[in-house]
C-alpha cells in the first residue's frame, strides 16, 4: 500500500522467468573477488500499469486508495512483455548504468541469435 511498481519486487521474478540476464557486479573481499547477481533497475517498472488494467481491482481502506493485483497474473503479464520486447520495463534514464548495461546485453544476444539463424 502506498507504493508504486518501482518498489514491486515481484517484477524481478518476471525478469528472471522471461530469461532476462542478471546485472553482474563484483565485490572485493579480503580473500578474493566475488561475482554476484544484482536485480535490474526498477525505474521503468511503472510502465506496466496499462498492461495490468484488466487484472487490477481498485479499492479503498480508510483514506488510502489501494490496488489488488494477483501476483501470478502480474508475473505472467510482465514476463510476456519482456519476452516480446527485451527492453520492456527498462527505464529511459540515459545515465542509468543498469538499464544501459541490460540494453547492451539484450542487443548482443539478439545479434547472436540472428547470426546463428543465417
Task: Provide a descriptive summary of the structure in words.
The protein has three helices and four strands. The radius of gyration is 17 Å and the shape is globular. Helix 1 crosses helix 2. By secondary structure, the protein is of the alpha+beta class. A two-stranded antiparallel sheet has the order 1-2. Strands 3-4 form a two-stranded antiparallel ribbon. Strand 1 and strand 2 form a beta hairpin. The longest helix has 20 residues, at 97-116. The chain has one domain (5-116). The mean pLDDT is 88. The protein starts with 9 loop residues before the first helix and ends with a helix. The relative contact order is 0.19.
In short:
The chain has 118 residues and is an alpha+beta fold. Helix content is 36%, strand content 19%.
Taken from the alpha-carbon principal axes, the silhouette is globular
The oligomerization state is single chain
Question: Structural class given helices, strands, pairing?
Answer: alpha+beta
In percent terms, what proportion of residues is strand?
Answer: 15-25%
Order of helices and strands: HEEEEHH
| Unreliable residue stretches | none
Total helices: the number is 3
**Overall structural domain count:** 1
Amino acid at each position: 500500500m502506498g507504493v508504486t511498481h518501482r518498489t514491486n519486487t515481484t517484477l524481478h521474478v518476471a525478469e528472471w522467468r522471461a530469461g532476462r540476464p542478471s546485472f553482474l557486479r563484483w565485490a572485493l573481499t579480503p580473500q578474493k573477488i566475488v561475482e554476484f547477481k544484482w536485480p535490474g533497475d526498477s525505474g521503468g517498472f511503472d510502465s506496466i500499469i496499462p498492461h495490468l488494467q484488466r487484472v487490477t481491482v481498485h479499492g479503498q481502506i480508510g483514506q488510502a486508495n489501494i490496488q489488488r493485483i494477483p501476483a501470478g497474473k502480474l508475473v505472467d503479464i510482465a514476463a510476456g512483455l519482456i519476452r516480446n520486447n527485451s527492453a520492456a520495463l527498462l527505464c529511459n534514464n540515459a545515465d542509468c548504468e543498469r538499464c544501459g548495461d541490460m540494453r547492451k546485453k539484450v542487443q548482443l544476444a539478439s545479434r547472436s541469435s540472428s547470426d546463428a539463424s543465417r
